[in-house]
Amino acid sequence: MKLSRKGFIFIVLIVSALILGAYISQNSSTPILSHTASFGFGHEAPLTLNLIIITLSIGFTFNISIAQILCLMCAFAIYTIFSKFID
Asked: Treating both helix axes as pointing N-terminal to C-terminal, what angle do 5-27 and 66-82 enclose, rounded to 10 degrees?
């Protein structure tokens, strides 16, 4: 599967928006931007399967903050504006 130039720019914008939003939420003094919600399973104690020989622990947690949501919306807006100029 070949990734086009538009797809590559879209992925870069989304990842950079998530990283920038996480940075803003950790370093902001306002509680609105730093409010974080956690979704997933195994948050407190992961699911553990003990098979005597091997023990498997499975868990998944997804944390998202208001600042990350705002940065994602800005990234989508930037992509829709500049995607018209990308071949």
From this structure: 150
